[in-house]
Amino acid sequence: MQKSIERIAGDSEGVSYEFPVFRFDGSDKAAPSAYLQAALHAGELPGVVAIDALVPMLSRAEAEGRIKGNITVVPWANPIGRAQYLYGDHQGRFHLGTRTNFNRSFPLLAAPDVTLLPAHGTVDQRLKTRLLQLSIGHDIVLDLHCDDEGLAYLYVHTSLWPAMADCAAAMGVDAVVLWDEDTDGTFEGASIIPYQNVPADVARFDRRVATTVEYRGILDVDGALADSDAEGLYRLLVARGVILDQALSTSGSFTGIVAPIENIDMMPAPRSGAILYEVKPGDRVAKGALLATIVHAPGEAGGRTQVFAPQAGIILTRRSRRIIRAGEDLLKLVGDRKSADARSGTLED
Ligand SMILES: [Zn+2]
User: Fold this and answer.
1) Which of 169, 180, 258, 344 could crosslink 251 through cysteines, CB 3.0-4.6 Å?
2) Cis peptide before 162, with omega less than 30 degrees from 0?
3) How far apart are the CA of 77 and the centre of ligand 1, in A?
């Protein structure tokens, strides 16, 4: 493994940001290559600790001559967000200098050609360019995030499904959300959109992987989960021929939930207040089931408002904080049918 340090100059004198990159050289130029990054939203740490558990497995494979394809690992992809604290609270989702989400406004290139990337911009834009320079060209691109509270699930572009079902099975995730429109420029979108209109021998959808991995909730930073997630990532790399491991049994077929993003009901809160959840991630609910009660006027008659399921489905996520404003989303319900509140593009700001 070679470690190098990336440096991103800040927007003012005397400020710069650094993050490490690990590279494992593959022995077979024809083998698929892989890129993994974690904590683009800098406070989302389940993927960071999964990579911490994965790297020793990669080093062992390297020592035993079993790495076939090149592997690039960025354990903490966002040093700008990592350093952002506001009145004691960590702020890793939006760049405080521009109010831009760190996982939006990536350039969506017409082809997988890094020379098309912009060279200038504010520091967060230059970080995004650098991450794409590091990742574009790899066959497998994994962007490790987490939700508020939730199941383990993947976002996958429809062009890669069901070809990526083996990856979902290898990783042991609970659900896959399929999408086909990115108007916001997510890292995942920037990793797969460039391949949509290029010749099939460049696109290689049979061996391409691009996904946003949502490793459960923000508080699910746990040693046992990190170990099992690292095993899932390792299984994926073996299944796709990046690493050779004949001792590893193959994963079965994927049996989790698969739903188009249009089926997700986000359930905007009708009132502001304190949330009493009646459901948790993984629960199956019927149409009309009580999902949550908002206590908006405590102690007063009529001070509670109940929220019911608009359709049957599975609870995928819910908020980690229990204070909510009117119009903010209460949870993600993966419905059996298209949501009456279906949103185009990304589900959240
Ligand atoms: Zn995230």
Assistant:
1) 169
2) yes
3) 12
